[in-house]
Amino acid sequence: MIELDEASLQEEFKPLFRLPEFERALTNVMNDRLSLSLLLMALSYLEGIGELAIGAIRQGEVAQLMHDLRRHELEEHGHMIGIRLVVEELFSEFFEAGRYRYENFVYEKVGKVYSLTVRETARRRLRQLGRYSPLNLYLTITFGGEIVVQVLYAVLIDALERSTFPAALKDRVRFVLQLILDQEETHDVLLAEQHNALLGSDRSSLSAEAREMLNQLGRLTGDDYRWTTEFMMRAFVSWTSAFFADLAQVRTTLESESRIVA
Prior knowledge:
Elements: H1 6-13, H2 20-29, H3 33-55, H4 60-65, H5 69-90, E1 95-96, E2 99-100, H6 103-128, H7 134-161, H8 167-184, H9 187-199, H10 208-219, H11 222-243, H12 247-257
Antiparallel strand pairs: 1-2
Helix pairs in contact: 1-7, 2-11, 3-5, 3-6, 3-7, 5-8, 6-7, 6-11, 7-8, 7-9, 7-11
């Protein structure tokens, strides 16, 4: 059995989002249309990490034992699309024929790099500890991602109140972030329940591969969940703090990666 205290982890890691360098970067984002559109598009891609992690389980028998797996996959996809639609609505000057002008940059340099870094680092650590399986990777990354969302989106909603953007824009961004937060509230509890339900499942009819995956799950610890969560938090804070530290540099970077900057 495993117990995961998500509220305690949220409180433990909140100070990361109060680091001076992150707060300076966030102030820049919340007063610059290009930067806010870019950050929101990055969040849209990061919402897709959960969807990708689900597909990474790659063991049909174990996947069938997991409750609400398809619902979770659809929900993560919905979050990704929902944020993107709000960005297109509010920042239409950065879209051409329905495509975000800096889509390739966000995908290649933000979403892809971050998700690959998270997955490969977490996978390598679990392998070194003898606790790797696609299931263990899915559970730890999904849990960490949801803690990141809960802390980060609350921080963003609070920062919106202090921004110079028009009230209508702030209301639309706040609405979509709060909607996702409300849907995420029970997920971490469900992940702990899922972990324990899988450990207690009947293995008599399962293949050797599926049984071994569940055996590996029994080796997974609360520290594994915590470590992955902290790594994901620190990686996001580090990137955001560095990239948005200088708005002129943001534009210079995008000019070198994209066709034009408005």
